[in-house]
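Bump. Still looking for BHLH domain-containing protein structure tokens.
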Amino acid sequence: MQRFQSFYEVGNCSGSYNFVQGKMWLNNNNGGGRGRRMDGGDENDESACAVGPATAAAEAKANKSHSEAERRRRKRINGHLATLRTLLPTTIKTDKASLLTEAVRCVRELKKATAELAAAISPETTADSVETPASFTTFPSEADELKLSYTGDDDDTRAGNVRAAICCEDRPEIMPELARALKSVEGTVVRAEMSTVGGRIKIALWLRVEGLGKGGDEAALAAVKLALKEVVDRPAATVGSGNHLPGGPGNKRPRLLM
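Sorry for the wait, here they are.
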């Protein structure tokens, strides 16, 4: 028979109860196997306690990462709002709701203006039923191009009307070159539109060409095309020198449309 300690050997009442509970648990399990203790504890409590600090560190790291991502998101949004404040013409109220409302209103106005401009440059038909292409806009493209369109002739003279669009690299000498080219084919500028964006230039010309004749003489049109093509193909001068760069950067293959 197993001998139990006396009250004085064990200590107080709670200590005696815990001591007895531990002895009974050991006797029931015979010193081996897994089980639960009489006091409701689990023998895996020590391993759970060991995993606890690692889990807490992982949660802290995840929370920090989330906070950093949220901070970057707010910084990016504030940067976009600051850009909007500089772009909008009228920003009386600078709060986010008023700013977004004003931005939506400006975008709608720009869309309406774009639609009106697109309607204004829609294809036109002359008295001789010669259609003028709608692509004669004054916005430069990335490719060099030359477009010609015969738009009719004068009743009293042998002159014919031609609409031309030129797009190429911008350079200081392009205007004198155009003047010489038009003079060589006896062309007179009736109307001109021009725009430059990012080192590119596009010029729309309404010309009156002598000797073009009724219906547009093919030889005269070919001469106009050749003269303008030389202007488009000519590369820009090298910076700091008077030489030209044949085939230099930006001298793209022109597109000729009649």
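The two ends are 119 Å apart (CA to CA).

Edit: fixed formatting.
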